[in-house]
Specification:
It contains twelve helices and 14 strands. The chain is an alpha/beta fold and 379 residues long. It has one domain: Alkaline Phosphatase, subunit A (3-Layer(aba) Sandwich). The protein has a ten-stranded mixed β-sheet with strand order 5-6-4-3-7-1-8-13-2-14, with helices on both faces. A two-stranded antiparallel sheet has the order 9-12. Helix 9 runs parallel beside helix 11 and helix 10 runs antiparallel to helix 11. The structure holds magnesium ion and zinc ion.
């Protein structure tokens, strides 16, 4: 008798589940099973090169304003895959450029102001440094100073973004092949009296600056690393006549493609001043920078279409200005309004083209962009 009871008890859970199953589900419905979400699918044929383009402060409303002020067309429309990322940082729903770029470069959320460091301020490896270690060529192009938070987060590790001289010194720690941006004074007029321009030359770099002539007039030696400073401090605005982002980005593509040979390259290109237009609550400033960035996107896409082995990703770190396009607006005649002179927390679009682009559809954390770039490369 006891044996029978124990056998019954032994089989009870299964019997109960069976009865419950029969009672609760119509016979045709397959059982509902909770499973973990699939990891991002591995692409079979990954890219050789990855170009990450960051429009600082470029939310949906900045893109929309650029579109309507540009005859209802942007190169962003050429991208087949669009996703959204969640831009908040580890300590604030409202991110800044340092935490945003660190999320892309390292796959970790950090605090606002942190550059290439984790939440505790510890240095963490970046996709650019990892690409260097893998034998790829690397580059950075920006319309801010080259030591500003966005480019800095790919090559430097400092607790606070305003440590510009420390960031400049860290350009000597990673053998980056190509960089173009402003902020020469952080390399040449330093409180520690080091001359980093001379140190870069001693390390084999071709180093040039704005007063030696336009970037495009430089004689390029593809065997040497290349550094070009567009200004002593902050570069000019598009409205003041700055026009180097597109030619510098085209040169970066051809230079890195040639220098890297069979290995491939990683390149980050930043349209930095969309953000500055937003902080100034100046729609014309913001839109002119947006269109300059989009023209650069067009040139990079032309390269990628021709090359066929390049993944191009375009996104932003965050939106700036809480910009809106208000009633009464018409094509080419927008009535814009700003709700803030700082950043906002709205979701940020991600555009992808080329091998591995399919990884970038969907809604995900900003840190996933780092993981997706690695998956695309099969790392
Ligand atoms: Mg920036
Ligand atoms: Zn900003």
């Amino acid at each position: 008798m006891w044996k029978k009871v124990s056998q019954l008890i032994k089989y009870l859970p299964g019997l109960f589940t069976l009865l419950l199953g029969v009672a609760c589900s119509p016979p045709s419905t397959p059982p509902q099973v909770m499973v973990a979400p699939d990891p991002p699918p591995r692409v079979t044929e990954g890219p050789k090169n990855i170009i990450l383009m960051i429009g600082d402060g470029m939310g949906i409303s900045q893109i929309s304003a650029g579109l309507y002020q540009n005859d209802n067309q942007l190169n962003l429309e050429r991208f087949p895959i669009v996703g959204l990322h969640k831009p908040y940082s580890s300590d604030n729903l409202i991110p800044d450029s340092a935490s945003g770029a660190t999320a892309f470069s390292t796959g970790r959320k950090t605090y606002n102001g942190g550059v290439g460091v984790d939440e505790d301020g510890n240095p963490i490896g970046t996709i650019l440094e990892e690409a260097e270690e893998e034998g790829l060529s690397t580059g950075l192009v920006t319309t801010s100073t080259i030591v500003h938070a966005t480019p800095a987060a790919f090559i430097a590790h400092v607790a606070q973004r305003n440590e510009f001289e420390a960031i400049a010194a860290q350009f000597l720690d990673t053998e980056i092949d190509f960089f173009v941006g402003g902020g020469r004074k952080y390399f040449s007029r330093r409180s520690d009296e080091r001359n980093l321009l001379a140190e870069l030359e001693a390390a084999g770099y071709f180093v040039a600056s704005f007063e030696k002539g336009e970037l495009t007039s430089m004689e390029i030696d593809y065997r040497r690393n290349f550094a070009y400073f567009t200004s002593e401090a902050d570069p000019e605005t598009v409205q003041q006549g700055r026009h180097y982002l597109k030619p510098a980005s085209k040169l970066a593509c051809t230079f890195l493609n040639r220098k890297s040979g069979e290995e491939g390259f990683f390149l980050m290109i930043e349209g930095a001043q969309i953000d500055w237009g937003g902080h100034n609550q100046d729609m014309d400033y913001m839109v002119s920078e947006m269109i300059d960035f989009d023209e650069t996107i067009g040139a990079v896409l032309d390269f990628a279409e021709e090359d066929d082995q390049t993944l191009v990703i375009v996104t932003a770190d965050h939106e700036t200005g809480g910009f809106a396009i208000n009633p009464g607006s018409a094509q080419g005649e927008l009535i814009g309004a700003f709700t803030s002179d700082y950043h906002t927390a709205v979701l940020i679009p991600v555009f992808a083209y080329g091998p591995g682009a399919e990884l970038f559809g969907g809604v995900y954390e900003n840190t996933a962009i780092y993981q997706k770039m690695r998956s695309a490369w099969g790392w």
